[in-house]
Write a structure and sequence with these properties.
By secondary structure, the protein is of the alpha/beta class. The chain folds into 2 domains: about 25-75 and about 250-270, no CATH class; about 75-250, 3-Layer(aba) Sandwich (Rossmann fold), CATH 3.40.50. It is about 45% helix and about 10% strand. It contains 10 helices and 8 strands. β7, α7 (about 200) and β8 form a beta-alpha-beta unit. α3 packs across α8. The longest helix is centred in the C-terminal third of the chain and has 23 residues, at about 250-270. Pfam families: Glyco_transf_4, Glycos_transf_1.
Amino acid sequence: MINDYNNAISRVPLESRDVLGRKRSIQRPLWRVFEKWALRSCDAVVVNSRFMKKAIGDWYGIAEEKMFLLYKAVDLDAFSFSPPPALELPVEVLFVKHDYRRGGLEELMGALSQLPQDVRLTVAGPADGDEAAIRGLARDCGFNRPLTFAGRVSRSAVRELFTTHDLFCVPSRAEALGVVFLEALASGLPAIGTTAGGIPEVLDRGRAGWMVPPQDEEALRETLDEVIRSPEARKQKVRHGRAHAEKFSVPKMVRCMEEIVRQVLRRRRARAE
């Protein structure tokens, strides 16, 4: 099973940087060679989004019939769903992502800094040692609104954060799927993401949330402003979002995995005959 495409896209020389500004080491290209060999040697390759199915198939040359889609699941019972209440100022915005640069925190801070509404931002997920860099990023972006740095948090703490915020926004530059969006939908929190990777699948192509192009700060600002000003749209998308999240339940994931195993075993028996 393969859950991300970091190794697959590593085709660049040592000491170069990727689109996120991170240094690439020689380990990525080496892992790419190993990963390609391993995937071609397997009876089946399981991926966690339609985006990944096409991307890995194209990058590694894996036959379509060898690839299977298995979405990650969300324990819906662990999330307390409630329709979004009327917004009161300041608007509490939540960002949850360990790799905050990949998560588009810079674009989010830039967009929020231009909003006419009073907003506050909570950043959860990055390591505690990243706080100084994140506060420096806020200064560079001109973000002078209240900023709470929650650091690395447990899953239960994330669920609690969902209940104390008004909007969830992670404008990712790259994302294989985006399970945290499903968790936000399961909680009834209006979600804003991008069209990157598998995010359109978890946001049901924009029916369960809002999407903007990656790294488009102006589009993000306009969308945030629209979301804040549109209570009926928030209610509609939140209702659809919870129903959409139910398609990613644990029982459905288990049934899907069982069917994948059955198909692979049938193929092996057919080859042996």
